[in-house]
Amino acid sequence: MYKHFFKRVLDFLAALFLLILLSPLMLFVALMLKLVQGGVIFTQARPGLNEKIFKIYKFKTMSDERDEKGELLPDEERLKPFGKLVRSLSLDELPQLFNVLKGDMSFIGPRPLLVEYLPLYNEAQKHRHDMRPGITGWAQVNGRNNISWAKKFELDLYYIEHCSFFLDLKIAFLTLEKVLKRSGVNKDGNATTSKFNGSN
């Protein structure tokens, strides 16, 4: 009952409450990003429940700087100090509250990955789309970007099989702890995690 009904009700009410509560902070971050790098919101197509494609919202933490050939500079060079701070505090995830409100996402579930990964999943990994994707999840509180893709998928599938109110509560508290400690945001030596290629 919780997984198929109450979870969505709690998501909607909590997202509405947090959007009202955090609107001053979100406005401040948006204004600062506009001043520092010109862009505010990053959108991207992601697969959600039952692989339905939706548009995810995040604060844009990297600039659009390009080299002399017109190609984007490496992530590390486009991630400016304020963007790095926003990311380290996980404030870049706040616009996803609108995704939760709309029903694209849940607060807790497997993170929504790139559409290009869909053909690369094996039969077991495809089951990560049996639930709405989450802003945070079991994989995020157990290593986030510093664990292998295989381990992430293993943790995602564990969550889907064992989803409960108390597990969600545990993940919520562990997420808060990790945000406060700023741990696991970037994979060692990289501004972002490495891409999934079907075998890693």
Structure at a glance:
Helix content is 43%, strand content 10%. By secondary structure, the protein is mostly helical.
Layout of helices and strands, plus pairs?
Layout: H1 2-37, E1 41-47, E2 53-59, H2 75-78, H3 81-88, H4 96-102, E3 106-108, E4 134-136, H5 149-162, H6 165-181
Parallel strand pairs: 3-4
Antiparallel strand pairs: 1-2
Helix pairs in contact: 1-4
List keywords for this structure.
mainly alpha, globular, two-stranded parallel ribbon, two-stranded antiparallel ribbon
Q: Which structural class do the helices and strands define? A: mainly alpha
> How much of the polypeptide forms β-strand, as a percent range?
5-15%
Distance between the termini: 35 Å
For the secondary structure, the number of strands is 4
Strand order of the largest sheet: 1-2
Query: What does the main sheet amount to?
Result: 2 strands, antiparallel
Sketch the topology as an H/E string, one letter per element: HEEHHHEEHH
Enumerate how many helices there are, as a single number: 6
Radius of gyration: 17 Å
Overall morphology: globular
Helix content: 40-55%
Q: Residue ranges: pLDDT <50 for 5 or more in a row?
A: 187-191
Mean pLDDT: 89
What this model shows, in words?
There is one protein chain. The protein has 6 helices and 4 strands, in the order H-E-E-H-H-H-E-E-H-H. It has 200 residues and is mainly alpha-helical. The strands form 2 sheets. Strands 1-2 form a two-stranded antiparallel sheet. A two-stranded parallel ribbon has the order 3-4. The chain is globular. The N and C termini lie far apart (35 Å).
